[in-house]
TrEMBL record:
Protein name: Uncharacterized protein
Transmembrane annotation, as ranges: 13-31
Keywords: Membrane, Transmembrane, Transmembrane helix
Superkingdom to which the source organism belongs: Bacteria
Length: 113
């Protein structure tokens, strides 16, 4: 019959392993966010969401239908406005790390949004 080791004989470093794992995971996550912030520029974001607009709108839509401007709100990095061939407008609010925060229903002139 095999007996379990008493708690006093277990290695002390084993108690610190959960903290080490959480620390390493947190560091990797923060490194990833920093990498994204440093390597994704506004022109890449504009190109990505213009392609998204073309795929969403379909026939007649072009990449040149979209314009971008700096965001004004909390956490908004870029606002991209696209004018569809039928006169409709789509506005995309892009977050700090390049994610779509919301698709804003636009009215009026897209250059004023």
């Amino acid at each position: 019959m095999i007996r379990a080791r008493p708690a006093s004989l277990r290695p002390r470093w084993l108690y610190w392993m959960p903290l080490a794992v959480v620390t390493v995971c947190g560091a990797l996550w923060l490194f990833r966010l920093g990498w994204i912030a440093a390597h994704v520029d506004e022109s890449a974001l504009l190109d990505h969401y213009a392609r998204f607009y073309v795929a969403e709108t379909g026939e007649g839509a072009r990449l040149s239908d979209c314009v971008g401007r700096p965001g004004q709100g909390d956490g908004v990095r870029l606002v991209i406005s696209c004018t569809a061939p039928d006169g409709g407008k789509r506005v995309y609010a892009i977050g700090r790390f390049g994610g779509l925060l919301e698709q804003i229903p636009a009215s009026g002139d897209a250059s004023k949004t």
